[in-house]
Every structure is written in structure tokens, then in C-alpha cells.
Write a sequence for this structure.
């Protein structure tokens, strides 16, 4: 249900308060063409608390282009009179890797050249916020699981944000945004830097000095408006906190050894000096690695047998340990943080390892083919039923499996022609039912029948088809959550390797399973015919290696 709420408090506040704080709150959880995002629109419920804290609030709940357009126009018109600016966006976002847009309810399936007034430019809002340094706050409530690819140039999620100097940006899951705005931002006198540090899942970027109060108490001036000596001390402290260096904090202490933030400055200096590998951490953060780039690094580590404990684009303890182990083996300082040189070295090593794996797989395949041909000459090539079945038992998907099965089918047909009518009818009935019970009844009735071997083989096959191992393998593949695009990439890679996966259509059929088992067998993996994480990492790494060669 669509609801448009425009809370205009201008008439209820004194003139000094009217110009003090302006808030734009947009929440979208219902979409006409995209998947809904449960509770994303609840952020507009924070309007009452913001109003009580002295904000003029413009809020739109599940709005379309017209409602949001009016709110944006009113916001832009009111900005010149506002001393503090707050923008809260909760819902779905899209990025081309450089720019970021907020998607409204009526946004169609996004494409890079199809974004219009139904999407709001986050970069444009940052430009507006830049006019209020140290008094501008942008909060983005996102879907932490967003990974959709809209077209080759546009994906779901946030891109790198060019945050202007003096602007604060907070990013967190949309489910936590409402509570954070209500309980932290709207609370007068709250230390925003401490609240962000204590909040689970909230990340602070840009201007966020220690002791930063965005919403002052009644009668207090906002940051940047205090008169005289207090304003000078505040400005020096905020500048030191923004730089976050020992030198900057030292400058503040030289000027104000007994100042309001002297204790915080000394604590910050101690923390900087105590933090191990701080320079390396800041250097890695400065690279601005995207989530996909982080996934690539994790895949490369895994390919080189440094287990990152998942390929999810999040550098947790497992990934940091894997990086540390890789650095130790390659003669780098063990900081757990990467610089550009190390990332390039890691990528090159992974590419070489991928090629080595492919070469080893080719040698294994050739050896298996030689063994296959030799066994065929000793068994199936003689043409008797026992030899054909012996071959298929050892090589059910071998080079001559189709030939062997065709010959067995011909033998069975010959038997059917010479079998007695009663036995033939019983066998046909068992084949039609195709159950273990039906085949056992046939064996009981015809223990010396012409189709005893076929019945026993079918009973074994039915039991195998329901084996626990296959059930686990099938469940493991389902847990990977593959989409059709990834499935087609995998089929294309199997086809390029000459494994004949059948139609490249993003659907795994019998031919695809046969090709997967061949791929896994050649590379020393468990040959189930279903995808698991090691197989997926190898396939994607093989694909990357092939593209690097091209």
C-alpha cells in the first residue's frame, strides 16, 4: 500500500529553529517490477522523533517519481535557509561502478541508459550536502544481500562514493536504519562517532571526528556555529579528528593542552600508536576495492590453497589469516592487508596455478582415456554381454559407453524375441513399473529367465540413484544459489573443454551432469555430477585463466 507523508513543521517552529535543521527521508520497500524489500520503508516512521529534535522533515513512504520529485524540489528550495542537512535513503540502489542511484517504487528493470526521473542520483545529493561541511549527514539503508546484475554495465548496490569534505555518510542494513535514526541521530547531544562505533552493522565514512554532535541539545549551537574561542577550539579539534593522525592530534594538544577534547586526543594518539599495521590498513582502504574485486582475491587465495573460509567479498578473520599466510610464503610483511603490488602478484600466481591445473587435468584425462581403451579391448570389444557389462560397470560414462549400451540393448531385444510369451510379458511389466519390487517379482517368477542380469542391474541402479551421497551432493549444489547466468558460464566452460554438456541454456540436464562428472574426475575432485564450492572455484578460475590468455 502506497503512502505519501509530507511532514512540514515550518509553521510550528521559531525562526531560529526553522533554519537550523532540514531532513529528507525516503523509504521504499514496495516495487512495481523489482523484488520488494521488507521493512525498508519503515524509516519514515522516524519522522516524529526528528520533528521533536527540531528538524523540518520531508518524508516519502513508497513514493513514485511525482511524490519523490516534489519532496526533492521542496528540499532543494529549503536548503539555503538550513544550517544542518540530513538525508536518509532506505531501499534498493544501482551503480555503474562510478555513480550511484536510489531506485523509486516505479523504477522499471534498471539499465544504464534507462535510468530517468524514477531514480534519484546519490551523487547529486552529496553535491548539495557539500554546502554544509561538518553539518551534513547522509544515511543509506541498503540490502546487504544485493548482488543482482541489471545489465553488463549496471549492478545492484552502492558504487564508490565521492564524499565531499565535511560530509558524513553512514551505511548499514535497511532493517537497522530506522532504529539508528530514531535512537541515535534524533537524540539531542548524542556523540555520533561513539554511536556509530557501538552500532552493529553501521559503517561511518567521511567526516566523523571524535565527539561529533550532529543534533545539539536545545539552546546549544550546532557544530561549526559556536562563537569565539570555543568555535576556534571546536574547529581545530574537528580538523584533527578528520585527519586522524598523531601530528594533527598533537597540534590540538599544543594549542589546548587542557582543552575539552584533550583526553580524547591523547587516547586517539595512544590508539594510533598501539594499532598494529595501521598504515597498511589505511593503504588497503584507500584502494576502494569493490565487493567483486574482493571475491576475486578470495578466489585467487583459494586457488593457491590459502583457505579464506568463503568467497563472499567480505574480508573476515578467515580471509585475513589466508592473506597473512600468503604474505609469509611470498616474503612480504605479515600485515593481513594487501597493497596493489601484492594484489597483482596474487593474481599472477593464481593465473599460473590455473594453467598448471588445466595442464595436469589434461594429462589425467589422457591417462584415463588410455586405460578406458585398453579395458574396452579386453571386455566390450569382444561383443558378449558379460564383457559389455563389465566395461559399463567400470566406465559407465567411458568412451565406448554409448556403443556398449546400444549393443546390450540389441542383445536384450534378441532375448525378447526368443523368450516365451509369459516371461516376455512379465519382463515388460517389470520394465514398465521400473521399481525395485517389480524387478524382484520378476526374478522370483523367472530365476533362470533371459533378463535376470538386466533385472539385477536395474535394481542396483535404482538403489544407486537414491543413494545418500547423491542426495547430499544435490543439496550442496542447491545451497550455492546459482543463477541462470552463472549456470550458462559453467556450461560454456565445459563445452570449451570438449566435455559435451549439451545445450548451453542455463539448465543442467543429463548431459551437463555427465560433463561435470568428467571435469571433476579429471581434476581429482569427487565426481558427483553436482557442483560444490571446490568445483565452482576451479571452473571460475579456469574461465578467468582462459580470458587472461585471450
Amino acid at each position: 500500500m502506497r503512502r505519501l507523508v509530507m511532514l512540514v513543521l515550518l509553521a510550528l517552529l521559531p525562526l531560529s529553529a526553522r533554519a537550523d535543521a532540514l531532513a529528507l527521508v525516503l523509504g521504499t520497500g514496495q516495487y512495481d517490477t523489482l523484488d520488494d524489500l521488507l521493512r525498508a520503508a519503515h524509516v519514515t516512521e522516524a519522522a516524529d522523533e526528528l520533528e521533536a529534535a527540531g528538524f523540518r522533515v520531508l518524508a516519502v513512504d513508497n513514493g513514485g517519481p511525482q511524490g519523490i520529485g516534489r519532496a526533492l524540489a521542496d528540499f532543494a528550495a529549503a536548503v539555503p535557509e538550513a544550517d544542518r542537512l540530513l538525508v536518509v535513503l532506505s531501499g534498493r540502489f544501482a551503480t555503474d561502478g562510478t555513480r550511484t542511484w536510489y531506485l523509486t517504487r516505479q523504477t522499471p528493470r534498471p539499465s544504464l541508459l534507462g535510468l530517468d526521473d524514477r531514480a534519484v542520483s546519490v551523487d547529486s545529493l552529496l553535491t548539495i550536502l557539500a554546502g554544509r561541511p561538518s553539518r551534513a549527514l547522509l544515511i543509506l539503508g541498503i540490502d546487504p544481500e544485493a548482488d543482482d546484475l541489471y545489465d553488463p554495465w549496471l549492478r545492484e548496490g552502492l558504487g564508490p562514493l565521492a564524499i565531499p569534505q565535511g560530509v558524513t555518510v553512514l551505511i548499514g542494513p535497511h532493517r537497522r536504519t530506522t532504529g539508528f535514526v530514531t535512537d541515535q541521530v534524533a537524540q539531542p547531544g548524542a556523540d555520533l562517532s561513539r554511536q556509530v562505533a557501538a552500532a552493529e552493522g553501521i559503517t561511518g565514512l567521511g567526516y566523523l571526528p571524535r565527539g561529533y554532535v550532529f543534533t545539539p541539545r536545545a539552546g546549544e549551537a550546532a557544530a561549526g556555529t559556536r562563537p569565539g574561542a570555543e568555535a576556534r577550539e571546536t574547529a581545530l579539534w574537528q580538523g584533527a579528528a578528520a585527519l586522524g593522525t598523531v601530528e594533527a592530534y598533537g597540534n590540538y594538544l599544543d594549542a589546548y593542552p587542557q582543552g575539552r577534547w584533550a583526553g580524547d586526543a591523547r587516547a586517539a594518539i595512544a590508539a594510533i600508536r598501539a594499532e598494529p599495521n595501521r598504515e597498511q590498513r589505511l593503504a588497503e582502504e584507500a584502494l576502494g576495492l569493490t565487493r567483486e574485486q574482493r571475491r576475486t582475491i578470495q578466489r585467487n587465495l583459494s586457488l593457491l590453497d590459502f583457505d579464506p573460509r568463503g568467497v563472499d567479498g567480505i574480508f573476515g578473520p578467515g580471509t585475513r589469516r589466508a592473506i597473512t599466510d600468503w604474505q609469509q610464503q611470498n616474503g612480504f610483511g605479515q600485515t593481513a592487508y594487501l597493497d596493489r603490488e601484492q594484489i597483482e602478484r596474487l593474481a599472477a600466481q593464481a593465473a599460473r596455478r590455473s594453467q598448471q591445473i588445466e595442464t595436469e587435468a589434461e594429462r589425467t584425462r589422457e591417462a584415463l582415456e588410455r586405460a578406458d581403451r585398453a579395458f574396452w579391448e579386453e571386455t566390450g570389444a569382444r561383443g558378449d554381454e558379460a564383457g559389455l557389462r563389465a566395461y559399463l560397470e567400470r566406465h559407465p560414462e567411458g568412451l565406448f559407453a554409448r556403443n556398449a549400451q546400444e549393443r546390450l540393448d540389441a542383445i536384450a531385444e534378441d532375448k525378447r524375441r526368443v523368450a516365451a510369451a509369459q516371461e516376455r510379458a512379465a519382463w515388460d511389466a517389470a520394465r514398465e513399473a521400473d521399481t525395485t519390487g517389480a524387478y524382484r517379482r520378476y526374478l522370483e517368477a523367472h530365476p533362470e529367465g533371459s533378463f535376470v542380469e538386466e533385472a539385477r542391474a536395474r535394481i542396483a541402479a535404482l538403489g544407486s540413484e537414491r543413494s545418500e551421497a547423491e542426495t547430499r551432493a544435490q543439496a550442496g549444489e542447491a545451497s550455492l544459489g546459482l543463477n541462470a547466468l552463472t549456470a550458462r558460464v559453467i556450461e560454456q566452460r565445459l563445452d570449451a573443454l570438449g566435455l559435451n554438456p549439451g545445450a548451453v541454456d542455463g539448465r543442467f540436464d543429463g548431459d551437463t551432469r555427465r560433463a561435470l562428472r568428467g571435469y571433476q574426475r579429471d581434476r581429482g575432485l569427487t565426481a558427483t555430477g553436482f557442483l560444490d564450492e571446490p568445483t565452482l572455484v576451479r571452473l571460475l578460475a579456469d574461465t578467468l585463466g582462459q580470458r587472461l590468455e585471450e
User: Anything to note?
Assistant: The longest helix spans residues 340-378. Confidence is low (pLDDT under 50) at residues 1-19, 223-227.
